[in-house]
Amino acid sequence: MQETKQDWQYAPRSQDMEEIINRPPSWITLYGTIFMVVCIFGLALISYLYEYPDTVTGDLVLTTIDPPRPLEAPDDFPIARLLVAHEDSVRAREVLMVARSLATFDDVFELSERLSSNQDQSDAGLSNFFIPPNWNLGEIQEAVYELQEKQEMYRNLRDRRLDGLTTRELESRITRQERFIREQRQLQSRLEDRLVRNRAKLEQEEQLNTDGVDNRSGLITARRNVERTEDELNASRSEVRAASFDIELMRNQIDSYRGGLPSSLNQAGEDLRNAYDGLKAAVAGWENNYTITSPVDGLVLLQRDIRPGRTLLRGTSIGMVLPANAGGIIGRIDLPNKGSGAVAVGQRVLVRFDSYPYLEYGSVEGEVISIGRLPTGGITTVEVTFPNELNTTTGNHLEPGPLMEGEASIITESRSLLQRFFKRW
């Protein structure tokens, strides 16, 4: 009878075959065990020797010990004049740009200089503080008029100029001053009409210049015509105001004759000092509203689109000022509070700068030098120094740039795989 496949599979084996299967050679067991022990020992050694770090990551900005000062528009700021160029050296408090205003910047600047350099603060000195009538002071003109009125009042009481005049002589002077005021009003009307025409002509010339027409000469002439007419109009208004005040003084003198009312020189002096302080405050307010100044000595870097005629919205970035004595280069890391407790001074930092691809240039090694104690908005500030400057791990040298950004990894601890395994258990 022929054997089936199933019968062949389960046929009894010989005694020799059973012995070979059930008792493998002793050398296989020995060397196999040795090989397994060596493999386990090798893996344990590798796990002990191989370390990888615990890191805390944050965004880094490259700066200096004395950091750059950002420039922003404090309010909507239509640029009328740009007084510096990109990468110019500037001084602290130097005016960088001027906004469009009713006043002429040069006149306000000269007035500010005279106020700051005025050494005679006595009543007599303040009464002689001179402001040219042809200056265009725009928004602060009222404060100037107030000071000039108080000056005239003080000088009149001090010198008793009107005491020797009779009532009839005073009335005659009042009549002449009133006639002078009417003439000036007529002149102002003509000047205002001329100013409207000159401004319209200036707008046409500016539009032609914007369209690419080379009309430099016509543009300069139009601007001068506008400035000259404004100066004449302001001078006339100043004279009218002075004449009106003279009339008021003379009428007060007539009333004093009739009523016997005494005048106080001390009160006039106090009013004069208050008006002088008010003018200084008005000038300071104008400078705050219509100028942008440099906060420190240094180098100004302007955005490319900063130019006269552009209107900056509130908070618009204008550029920055690099301090003249900025100190060494450091990095500032905005570190999330989560995990920041493991960061300590002296720890290594690896920085990958965005402007230099990591795979090509490598990373820069730094060291933690300080940790902010007061987190703000869930962020802790960490400062990093670079002992090897900006030399990378691949031997490249990076050129620092203002506020260059990158990703920083702070190495808080290095442990082997074996240590991590046993720590879990």
Automatic annotation (TrEMBL):
Residue stretches spanning the membrane: 27-50
InterPro entries, sorted: MFP (IPR050739)
Coiled-coil intervals, chain numbering: 188-239
Keywords, alphabetical: Coiled coil, Membrane, Transmembrane, Transmembrane helix
Name recorded for this polypeptide: HlyD family efflux transporter periplasmic adaptor subunit
